[in-house]
Structures are given as structure tokens and as C-alpha cells.
């Protein structure tokens, strides 16, 4: 299980990884803004440790183009980002890209720091509301964290995503590292980030989830 794989990391290792993560901001051109898929995430989406052009977001863009979906990805993900940071950055991104779809992949760094579940939920809720008010379709990415703060906190954290998806009738996408984190050959040495080999698998899994969820018009 994924939880068994990541629970071996100490909380000190996790916090130090968060602090040391480099900050990146990679985005697509603002052409065809009304057909933009905005990805607001952390290091898992920013491509921490992955060469430019080899991140799962880049591979997903290729799939979108090959299948004539007409969506351009704007990757506004930053390594080490929290829900609060994402909330601060979202208004500018919405104004710049006017995205048709917003994919929210945030919360892992909040959970790894043991931040207030109430504040995490409120920040995610505001991210969703702001995106909906901008007339964007919202996709929420489920996040799974190690049980360093106990089973009660971990389960309550994960439940936030299910509750919000139900409250706003959103598509809840599976965690990016499902079936990835349990395989050491697909993970970087830190045990937290997927390596180059994993990027295609992540892209394929997300593509299948998007198609299955009827995100794309016929």
C-alpha cells in the first residue's frame, strides 16, 4: 500500500524536503486562453527533479494535441507550495489565462506540516469557489499523505477532498502517485517524488481519468 511505502519516512525528512524544494513556475503560452487547462499544484506537478519537457504535464499536452482536444496546458505549479500560497497566486493566474478548466493539486505540503485541517479545507474551498466564479470547470486532485501525525489526522485530511468534491459536484481525480509510490523503481531517491520513468505512467493514468470523467466534450 502507498501508506506503508511512505510511512517509513520520518517527519523530519519530510519537512526538510519541503523546505529544500526549489520554486518553479512553468506555464504555457497565453494563446487560446479560453481553451486553457490551468494546473495549480506543488512539486508533483511542477516536475521536481525532472528535466524540462519530460514532466507528466508535458506528456499530457502531447496527448491532448494528438487527440485534437484543443486544450493548452498552463502549468502554474510550484514546488513546496501550500494551499495558502496557491490561493494567493490563483487570482493572477485566472486573470492571465482565463482557463476553461482548473486542476487543483494542492494540500500535500499542508498535510506534511500538520497544518490545521480546518484551514486546509477552507483554503481548498476558496480555491474552488474562485475558480467557479471565473466560470472555469474545476477538477480536484485527491491527496494522500503519510500517517506521521496519526491515523485520525491522515484520514480526516483525505476526507476533505471527498467532502469538497461531493459538495461542489466536482470530478475527484485519483492521487498522482497511486500505483507509483509503491514501486521504488519509479521513485526518486527521496522516496517522495516520481522519477522520469514514472512520468509517462502518470500521464497515461490521468488521461484515462479525464476521458472516463467526461471532461472533454464529444
Widest sheet, order of strands? 2-1-3-4-5
Overall morphology:
globular
Straight-line distance between termini: 36 Å
Number of E-type strands: 5
Uncertain stretches of 5 or more adjacent residues: 10-33
What's the mean pLDDT score?
A: 88
What is the radius of gyration? 16 Å
What does this entry look like structurally?
With 218 residues, the chain is of the alpha/beta class. The chain has a single domain, classed as SGNH hydrolase (Rossmann fold, 3-Layer(aba) Sandwich), CATH 3.40.50.1110. The chain has nine helices and five strands, in the order ααβααβαβααβαβα. The chain has a five-stranded parallel sheet with strand order 2-1-3-4-5, sandwiched between helices. Helix 5 (83-97) packs parallel to helix 7 (117-133). The chain starts with a helix and ends in a 6-residue tail after the last helix.
How are the secondary structure elements laid out?
Blueprint: H1 2-6, H2 11-20, E1 36-41, H3 43-46, H4 56-66, E2 72-75, H5 83-97, E3 101-105, H6 108-112, H7 117-133, E4 137-141, H8 151-167, E5 171-173, H9 196-212
Parallel strand pairs: 1-2, 1-3, 3-4, 4-5
Short description:
With 218 residues, the protein is an alpha/beta fold. 46% of the residues lie in helices and 11% in strands.
Features:
alpha/beta; 5 strands; Rossmann fold; globular; 218 residues; 5-stranded parallel sheet; 9 helices
Amino acid at each position: 500500500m502507498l501508506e506503508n511505502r511512505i510511512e517509513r519516512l520520518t517527519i523530519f525528512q519530510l519537512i526538510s524536503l519541503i523546505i529544500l524544494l526549489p520554486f518553479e513556475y512553468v506555464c504555457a503560452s497565453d494563446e487560446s486562453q479560453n481553451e486553457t487547462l490551468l494546473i495549480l499544484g506543488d512539486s508533483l506537478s511542477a516536475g521536481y527533479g525532472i528535466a524540462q519537457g519530460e514532466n507528466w504535464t508535458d506528456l499530457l499536452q502531447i496527448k491532448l494535441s494528438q487527440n485534437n482536444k484543443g486544450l493548452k496546458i498552463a502549468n502554474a505549479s510550484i514546488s513546496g507550495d501550500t494551499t495558502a500560497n496557491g490561493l494567493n497566486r490563483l487570482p493572477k493566474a485566472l486573470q492571465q489565462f482565463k482557463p476553461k478548466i482548473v486542476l487543483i493539486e494542492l494540500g500535500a505540503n499542508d498535510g506534511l506540516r500538520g497544518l490545521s485541517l480546518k484551514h486546509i479545507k477552507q483554503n481548498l474551498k476558496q480555491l474552488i469557489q474562485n475558480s467557479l466564479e471565473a466560470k472555469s470547470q474545476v477538477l480536484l486532485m485527491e491527496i494522500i499523505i503519510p500517517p506521521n501525525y496519526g491515523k485520525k489526522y491522515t484520514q480526516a485530511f483525505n476526507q476533505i477532498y471527498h467532502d469538497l468534491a461531493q459538495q461542489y459536484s466536482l470530478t475527484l481525480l485519483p492521487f498522482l502517485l497511486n500505483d507509483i509510490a509503491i514501486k521504488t523503481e519509479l521513485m526518486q531517491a527521496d522516496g517522495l517524488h516520481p522519477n522520469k520513468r514514472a512520468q509517462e505512467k502518470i500521464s497515461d493514468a490521468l488521461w484515462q481519468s479525464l476521458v472516463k470523467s467526461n471532461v472533454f466534450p464529444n
